[in-house]
Amino acid sequence: MTIYALSTGSGVSGIAVIRVSGKKTKKVIELLTNKELPQPRVATLRKINNINTSELIDESIILWFPGPQSYTGEDMAEIHVHGGKAVVSAVHNEISKVENCRLAEPGEFTKMAFQNGKINLLKAESIADLISAETEMQRVQASKMMKGRSAKKFNELREKLLKILSFVEAKIDFPEEELPEANIKLIRKNSTEVLNEIKKILDDQKVGEIIREGFKIAIVGPANAGKSTLINSLSKREVAIVSEIAGTTRDVVETHLNIDGYPVIISDTAGIRDAKDEIEKKGINLSLKKAENADLKLVIVDAKNVDLKGFLKDLLKNDAILVLNKSDLLKKELSPEIIKLDHVLISLKKNLNLDKLILKIKNNLKNKFKLEEDTLITRERHRQHLISCVNYLKNFLEKNDKEDFDKSAEDLRLATRHLGMIVGKVDVEEILGSIFNDFCIGK
Length: 443
Description:
about 450 residues; alpha/beta; Gyrase A, domain 2; Rossmann fold; 3 domains; six-stranded mixed sheet
């Protein structure tokens, strides 16, 4: 089957690029242009015509990439037309007339590239991350992943396990042969080294995933403390409804921000108090859950009436900044107990000290977002496979100590398989859909 799709963004633009890939690509170009194929990888000006009537649709640049020397590994072409919606629609309509040509699914071009061995699974994911990057830090991380350092590391660890497995299976195949003591020691030494390396990779504070998904900040506190006003001030737009009536916010309101290149997801939550009805109760439960899962909590309270008992005291224990709002109404000095806490005194009404709060948030981000060269995990999928690998390696070492080679070999195979699934070295059809569905159509 030959697939086609618009690869550039939808809407009016100077140019639009339509990709075609598959066995019928050659025929598609010949029918659209009424000419022979252009030279491979040479931008060529051609008229695009209606296949049946030869009516002119547009003048375009054609790029022809014969397989396997193409992005997908199959015959592929790019048709660069003017970016009007009607032009793109007309070209799509003509391609659809060619037998065995259909519109591509999200990520299908990159899926083809993976299946044809042009890229590994980590490279495919990094391409998706690069396309969706909203901040400089996300772009840098995706670019580093594209270089293949992570794939190289995981492949090296997998090769080490395969070598260990060959020793173990040799003993199973030839039980009458005594495995040299040196080989037994080498098996234990090398498998322990791999185990320790993976543990070190896992001990990364989830920096890669936080950068990719966004640093989660939850604004929490009692009703009418100024939570909605704060999210609007930080976002510089009306994200949440602001009202004098307590309990206005019933659900969690989220917005994505770019703070000095750091990707941030900030959430305005329902005011925490004794709920007046079942809906408000659910909103408060959501607030507490959002605070529990946040990387940073902004606990906002009224500066003139600070009561840090109960839930507020618990919220301030870890990864939290105390925000004392309505400082313009404050008539006396803060108590020593409040002063010793990590706090900022602001007035959202008078726009006082908001810059100090933003600076505190930035410093917190800098401490959390230490983008190291050895950041290897960017998705929960990678982490879960590595955790499974660690567990199977532990089982292997335990059984190996008892010289239970038959059972230990299976643990080693499973550990090797989980490493392979990260880069796509084994059958991973069950996870391909979830990965490539994240792509836009045309990629």
